[in-house]
């Protein structure tokens, strides 16, 4: 398994937007991203640092690898 970077929720949103995800809005402290054709929505906490498990699950839901995600940062 690749090592995950320590990033904020905002940095994660910017990386996912490069893949075509679109920020739909915010509910409480969570930013909601959608993508046409994808059956899932991403709910990213607006925290200064995302927990590694949370980031790994978001990457898995987006159907990409950790390596692909780190190249987007």
List key phrases describing it.
about 70 residues, alpha+beta, Metal Transport, Frataxin, Chain A, three-stranded antiparallel β-sheet, 3 helices, about 20% strand
Q: How much helix is in the residues? A: 25-40%
Task: Kindly identify the CATH topology.
Answer: Metal Transport, Frataxin, Chain A
Ends apart, CA distance between termini: 18 Å
With strands numbered from the N-terminus, the spatial order across the biggest sheet is 1-2-3
Structural class: alpha+beta
Largest sheet: 3 strands, antiparallel
Q: Estimate the global geometry from the Cα principal axes.
A: globular
The whole-angstrom Rg is 11 Å
Write the element-wise H/E pattern from the N-terminal end onward.
Answer: HEEEHH
List the total number of helices: 3
Tell me what you see in this structure.
It contains three helices and three strands, in the order αβββαα. It has 73 residues and is of the alpha+beta class. It has one domain: Hypothetical protein (Metal Transport, Frataxin, Chain A), CATH 3.30.920.30. A three-stranded antiparallel beta sheet has the order 1-2-3. The radius of gyration is 11 Å and the shape is globular. 21% of the residues are buried.
């Amino acid at each position: 398994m690749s090592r995950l970077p320590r990033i904020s929720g905002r940095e994660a949103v910017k990386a996912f937007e490069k893949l075509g995800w679109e920020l739909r809005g915010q509910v409480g402290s969570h930013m909601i991203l959608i993508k046409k054709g994808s059956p899932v929505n991403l709910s990213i906490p607006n925290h200064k640092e995302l927990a590694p498990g949370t980031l790994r699950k978001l990457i898995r839901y987006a159907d990409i690898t950790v390596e692909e995600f780190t190249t987007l940062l």
